[in-house]
Amino acid sequence: MLLDGKVVVVAGVGAGLGREIVRLALRDRARVVMAARSEDALAATAAELDPSGDRIAFQRADITDPDACAALAEAATQRFGSVDAVIQVAAFERVFGRIEETDFVQWTRAFETNVLGTMTLVRAMLPALRDAGGGAIVLIGSQSMYVPQLPQAGYAASKGGRLSAMDYLADELGRDGIRINMVIPSWMWGPPVQAYVEMRARAEQKSVDDVVAEITRRIPLGRIVPDEDVAEAALLFASDRMRSVTGQSLLVNGGEMMR
Fold first, then answer.
1. What are phi and psi of 213, to 5 degrees?
2. Which domains does the chain have, with CATH numbers?
3. How far apart (Å, rounded) are the C-alpha atoms in residues 88 and 10?
4. pLDDT tens string 185-214
């Protein structure tokens, strides 16, 4: 199996992409440590995805808190003995509005979470990754870094900062055998996009199918990529099959934007 015997830490496990990464990592025989800010939600996800609890653990953590990130790394090594891969999904997304109306306080929160929080998590995980002889770090970006989709410049800029930092980390950490790459989704069918589509349908008095058709008109594959497919790409980067790949980004967008 793709991740047989690997210990994978997944930060930002909610109802969408994070959960799918955990589910598929378990399918691929990994042992998984989940992190998020809601302990109750983590417990429910763990009970659903691995009722035995043999290959799953969880730790409440806010990635902007250095102590919480250190505790997460310690919890993973204590439970499973090592850390082989870290997949960073957690993000602050609620940054909307055009320049004359946007709230720069929300921009600050986006950068604190999406850039500084990511770096805080990565720094806390480095000792465990080095002790394992190297490993993989996988970040989640956003196609909004490249092309406007919604009025969310602050969110896009923070994800762009995450990408720029990744380039430097790839150079810095490569000598330790630590790889770092990014998966970049566009529209991704999961709870957040589904809620957005339903909201638009109500506001514009259209059917959900009509709104989806407008979005997919620009996508050569003709469908909104499911979050499961983005998760598959993240797990590939986490696996040894990509052991010679670092500092790279991969668009998972159905061909909506080609680079």
1. -65, -35
2. 7-187+226-252 (3.40.50.720), 189-223 (no CATH)
3. 6
4. 988 787 878 887 888 889 888 898 888 888
Residue 96's pLDDT is what? Answer: 65
44 contact partners, CB below 8 Å, separation of at least 6: none
How far apart CA 61 and CA 55 sit, in angstroms, is: 19
Distance, in Å, from the CA atom of 44 to the CA atom of 38, rounded to the nearest integer, reads 10
Tokens linked to 206: 């259209």
Low-confidence residues in the chain, pLDDT < 50: none
Handedness of CA 4, 21, 171, 176 (dihedral sign): negative
**Rounded to 5 degrees, what angle do the CA atoms 74, 77, 79 make?**
105
Query: Residue 111 carries which side chain, given as an amino acid letter?
Result: F
Summarize pLDDT for 225-246 with one digit per residue, the tens. Answer: 999 999 999 999 999 999 999 9
Angle, vertex CA 247, rays to CA 189 and CA 114, nearest 5? 55
